[in-house]
């Protein structure tokens, strides 16, 4: 599975330092209009301001749905490390409220947690 989208970086390219942790995600129901998709993207972007530990976030509409098995929106949240990612769960009430806002539009969700490995050849990666 692959998800491709135009990143809406704010204002710098997404940076993935060694040992940072990332969380990737959304499969929307078919035939949702652009207004609904915009609302969902707005909810995702707003998470950074209300969930501690997120250093950067990007999201967007998938432009290669055939490769993504129907997943139409993707996001990447970057944390300084695993502890920060796990600590973000302290905002469970806020996150659940945001999930309720978009739940009726979702057909499925995949969440992948990943830790960027240490590398002796470079100190960071950019997306």
UniProtKB/TrEMBL annotation:
This is Stress-response A/B barrel domain-containing protein. Homodimer. Pfam families: Dabb. Residues 20-114 form the Stress-response A/B barrel domain. The lineage of its organism: Eukaryota, Viridiplantae, Streptophyta, Embryophyta, Tracheophyta. InterPro entries: Dabb (IPR013097), Dimeric_a/b-barrel (IPR011008), HS1/DABB1-like (IPR044662). SUPFAM superfamilies: Dimeric alpha+beta barrel. Coiled coil: none annotated.
């Amino acid at each position: 599975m692959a998800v491709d989208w135009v990143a809406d970086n704010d204002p710098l390219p997404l940076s993935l330092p060694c040992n940072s942790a990332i969380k990737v995600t959304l499969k929307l129901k078919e035939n949702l209009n652009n207004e609904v998709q915009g609302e969902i993207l707005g909810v995702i972007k707003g998470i950074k301001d209300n969930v501690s530990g997120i250093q950067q976030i990007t999201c967007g509409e998938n432009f290669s749905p055939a490769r993504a098995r129907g997943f139409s929106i993707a996001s990447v949240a970057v944390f300084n490390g695993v502890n920060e990612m796990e600590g973000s769960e302290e905002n469970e009430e806020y996150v659940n409220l945001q999930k309720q806002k978009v739940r009726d539009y979702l057909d499925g969700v995949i969440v992948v947690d990943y830790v960027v490995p240490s590398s002796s050849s470079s100190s960071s990666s950019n997306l």
